[in-house]
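Re: that backbone. Tokens:
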């Protein structure tokens, strides 16, 4: 539990990759009910768990940067890169459908019609988007991890 919830200490490249894989797989599993349109009551709980996963990502990035002797604030760089890339991908992937929904709502469609329309338009896009998010997360984790070089000696964040 200390690995995911305490930002103190260092995390090796191999440890980071293992922790990243766990978080990526958990995030993907938590996104499946929405993608498959099942277990609506559990989606809220899964959404809350997703916020915990965000914290865990921050913690392991901090530890990985500590391993190179850098400040934990550097963890914001890969997280911001992830946010920008995912936002661009989502906008490109679902923007045409969302514009149709927005137009219908502006033309006076009631909320039930708008909800039904958005579900219908996005139905086949959610699972591929989740798979794409999985791949992007993996690329950023592996790429970022490779760019961070280990400090071979003890540093202010802990022993080598």
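Recovered sequence:
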């Amino acid at each position: 539990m200390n690995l995911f919830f305490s930002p103190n200490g260092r995390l090796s490249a191999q440890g980071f990759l293992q922790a990243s894989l766990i978080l990526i797989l958990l995030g993907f599993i938590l996104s499946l009910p929405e993608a498959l349109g099942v277990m609506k009551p559990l989606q809220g709980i899964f959404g809350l768990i997703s916020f915990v996963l965000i914290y865990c990502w921050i913690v392991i990035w901090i530890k990985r940067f500590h391993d190179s002797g850098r400040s934990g604030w550097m963890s914001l760089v890969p997280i911001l890169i992830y946010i920008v890339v995912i936002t661009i991908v989502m906008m490109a992937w679902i923007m045409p459908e969302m514009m149709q929904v927005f137009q219908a709502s502006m033309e006076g469609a009631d909320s039930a019609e708008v909800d039904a329309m958005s579900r219908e338009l996005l139905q086949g896009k959610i699972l591929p988007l989740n798979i794409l998010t999985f791949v992007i997360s993996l690329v950023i984790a592996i790429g970022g991890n490779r760019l961070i070089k280990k400090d071979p000696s003890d540093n202010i964040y802990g022993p080598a």
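DSSP finds six helices and no strands in the chain. The radius of gyration is 19 Å.
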